[in-house]
Amino acid sequence: MKLYPWLKKKYKKIILQYLNKKLHHAIIIRSNIYIGSNKLIFFLCKKILCTNSKNLFSCNECQHCKLVESNNYPDLHIINTENHKKTIGIDYFLSFINQVYNTSKLGKKTIVWISKTHCLTEATVNSFLKILEEPPLNTLFFLEYNSFFKLKKTLRSRCIIYDIHPPSQKQGIIWLKKKSNTFSTKNLLISLKLSENSPLLAKKILYSSLWIERKFFFKKVKKSIKKKNLLNLLNYFPNHTKKKVFWIYSLVLDTIKFYYDKDLKLINSDQKKLIKIIQKKNKIKDLYIIINSWKKCFFCLNNIAKVNKKFILLEPLILWENIFHF
User: Which residue among 106, 130, 164 closes a domain?
Assistant: First the structure.
């Protein structure tokens, strides 16, 4: 197993600080989804707990490395959400912390890895803050954190934050070509743009039904425009609803970009014909109204529990049909 190339620079920076005994005892690894933050933390843990390695990476051969690899290292505590729960409660959290205090150490370091920091309840965070003020001896805390969520300021203030950014499009394309040589560069670039430059998510899209489903969905958008019935699109939303809302949002965004400058780089560069149709049949002021309605729709689907999806989708579709110049 290799470290993703876009993570190596950040890995070396953190490990050098550890080797120079300058690494803070509580580290937040903050990133978007599908950037590989979990793999970065895994490689950091493995190196820190390794007993043989004299370079920047672990040896992969000592007993400690093998135990980490098999998820059996006694002093590496990975805290995830409990079964069938969406949060990390205080009792569940403290059961791990008690192990840190009460068990003997196999090596010199103990590591606590919280894989979903945003799932900590308020009571758990408050308890954790007290632990961070007087942490267990020779213990490191790695907090994996998705930047989409909010994190309590008091917790952030007691940690050092390392932001993990997506690679450049060029680096992403190079990696994808090694993993996905059956797709054209154009399609690799589209999948990257749809994935906010995450090569891991781009690869997932390319090798799932989503890639075919996206093209099918855009055909239905084109057909609905031709038949002057955008409400008909409601029939094609049941599966992957949020993704399809994002696809429409990105399509309207491309249309706005195309309206101002036809040479701008589009997200959906394979849908130029459809973009031209939408551009001809919508005024620029209407396009801004449309894109805001889809943005609101995406927000509602993402943040309101047990939302009536059909009801939420009707608003932007009705709005679009009413102002569309068929």
Answer: 164
